[in-house]
Input
Amino acid sequence: MTGRVTPPSGARLRLDRVLHALGDPVRLEVVRRLARDGECSCAALDGGRPKSTMSHHFRVLREAGLVETRAQGTTHLNALCRASVDAAFPGLLAAVVGAPEG
Amino acid sequence: MTGRVTPPSGARLRLDRVLHALGDPVRLEVVRRLARDGECSCAALDGGRPKSTMSHHFRVLREAGLVETRAQGTTHLNALCRASVDAAFPGLLAAVVGAPEG
Output
């Protein structure tokens, strides 16, 4: 299986949806982890949480335009859409990723 | 009636709760308006929405530590807790308030 789930383009990024996607502790942790470590598999990011729960969180992140996911064999690899989010909302990811834990 | 609903102190501000509070179009509009115009009454911010709806939104904003409300006679005046949010999460409000509409 190959392919890429296309996130919204920069032009369609909506600030309220981006903030909503970030406003959950699990999704926030995923975004901060992707910012720190780069592309990660779903398994590396689930922290032992149920697959259905994580599927929901990844869908919210993708639909907001924060994360893109590509299939590599049977693995899904996730990456932060840093360039498009930075272009739409300068300084937002830097503030979120740079903030202290908690 | 006088008094002030005390928001969380800077030490207790949580990034996920702040982002959750910002991640709603009505609350985001309120925060951007307070950043632009300073202290505003609830009535000036409701945009014709029902009082019960706005009470909920103001509660979420207060509980996240983004807004503080003080009573002046029968009016409630709301202000952005800019200093404490800036101290806890530098650059976050600037990015959110400075972002283009929508």
